[in-house]
Specification:
Layout lengths: L1 E4 L5 E6 L2 E10 L4 E12 L3 E12 L2 E15 L4 E9 L6 E3 L2 E11 L19 E5 L4 E6 L2 E3 L4 E6 L2 E6 L2 E3 L6 E4 L5 E3 L2 E3 L14 E4 L14 E3 L2 E3 L3 E5 L9 E2 L2 E3 L2 E3 L3 E5 L4 E2 L1 E4 L2 E2 L4 E2 L5 E4 L2 E2 L22 E5 L50 E5 L1
Length: about 400
């Protein structure tokens, strides 16, 4: 078993998901420490496995597996960190907070956080609030994938002043504010997520929006919203399915937004472009039930969008420890699982835009699949994981 490291000089190309993503080095894996939680705070500075319950976990370095852990608040402050598995619940503000570089957060159950704004669906919304998973200023080259984020009294996944952030393959539902919120964060993308609302969390009497691109005003940050991609997502029963909001800054604009290949069902508005100033905004290939709403068509391209009833995909969300079952693909259990959390991604300095996703909300299945964690299964409670079988 090996861990990828940036410090070794013997670089090689690693092929992940059919594409070479980085040049990394291989060094032997050092045994991970096991930390047993009894409700304490803990700071992690090297590879670790967490079991039991914790108050605040702060990760400054290392690859951390938390499959058998319940955490109140998770703080990732160090660079080159992978955190994989576990449950984050009951934090007063952000359940998971990231403000560092080259981070992967995956396979977490993140729910019932942001108690500063209420609990169990009673969220007054009278002041500011946090998010279930939050990337703040300082967050760069961050991947948030395969998590189940729900019932938080703020945004589900909030990206605020992040750089090159990927939100991919998550299941996000019934958060008080926007389920996936991309705010003034350039070169970021929300792809292949499943987002839905059941009416348990209302804001001013309305269900939350599905995915939104915004540009709030922050001192010293300015107008940095550009090159945002929202693609391949499935969004059902929310207020606005996909939104581009007017900038809070007088010089702000929506620049090079791509909205492509999404499916939006039973929303008040399927896609809403409310920015009065746009540059090279493209909305194409979406399956929607309501017309696209556009404030200003200058520099906006609408093409190949299908306005028709959209086939509903059955989503059976798990209680923590359950299994999400959708209509496709089939799922088969395997007997053993070696965590992949020892893999460290090395990101390029200049990100490139993702190739055009397909219109389906799940990634394409390779012809010869290799075992990988299926976010619809919770390894915390099941003695196996799931793989896609074509």
């Amino acid at each position: 078993m090996y861990r990828e490291s940036m410090k070794n000089k013997n670089l090689r190309n690693i092929l992940i998901g059919g594409a070479i993503v980085a040049a990394v080095a291989i060094v032997p894996l050092v045994s991970q420490q096991v930390i047993n939680g009894t409700g304490q705070n803990v700071t992690i500075t090297s590879d670790a496995v967490l079991t039991g319950s914790f108050a605040t976990v702060t990760v400054k370095a290392g690859n951390v597996v938390g499959t058998d852990a319940t955490i109140q608040c998770l703080r990732i402050t160090g660079n080159d960190v992978i955190f994989s598995g576990g449950e984050v619940t009951g934090c007063s503000s952000h359940g998971v907070l990231i403000n560092s570089q080259n981070v992967v957060v995956e396979r977490l159950f993140v729910h019932d956080n942001v108690t500063e704004n209420g609990t169990k669906g009673s969220c007054p919304g009278t002041g500011g609030w946090g998010s279930g998973i939050k990337v703040q200023v300082g967050g760069q080259n961050v991947v948030i994938r395969d998590n189940y984020v729900y019932s938080n009294c703020g945004e589900g996944i909030g990206i605020t002043r992040g750089l090159n952030i990927t939100v991919q393959g998550n299941y996000v539902r019934d958060n008080f504010s926007v389920n996936i919120y991309m705010d003034n964060s350039p070169n970021s993308q929300a792809v292949n997520n499943t987002v839905w609302c059941t009416g348990t969390h209302l804001r001013n009497g309305n269900r939350p929006n599905g995915i939104a691109s915004a540009e709030e005003s922050y001192s010293g940050w300015g107008t940095q919203r550009h090159d945002v991609t929202i693609a391949g997502n499935y969004i059902a029963d929310c207020n606005d399915g996909i939104s581009s909001w007017k900038s809070e800054l007088s010089t702000g604009a929506e620049i090079r937004l791509l909205v492509e290949g999404n499916k939006v069902i039973n929303s008040v508005r399927s896609i809403k472009l409310d920015s009065p100033t746009n540059q090279a905004v493209i909305v194409r290939g979406n399956l929607i039930e309501k017309p696209v709403t556009v404030r200003n068509m200058v520099s906006v391209t609408l093409e190949n969008n299908v306005l028709a009833p959209v086939a509903r995909i059955e989503i059976v969300p798990p209680a923590t420890g359950g299994v999400i079952v959708t209509s496709t693909p089939s799922v088969t259990a395997i007997a053993s699982f070696t965590p992949t959390a020892t893999r460290t991604l090395v990101f390029t300095a200049t990100p490139t835009r993702t190739p055009t996703p397909t219109s389906t909300f799940l990634p394409a299945i390779p012809a010869t699949p290799t075992p990988r964690f299926d976010p619809r299964c919770d390894a915390k409670y099941l003695p196996f994981v799931c793989v896609y079988i074509p």
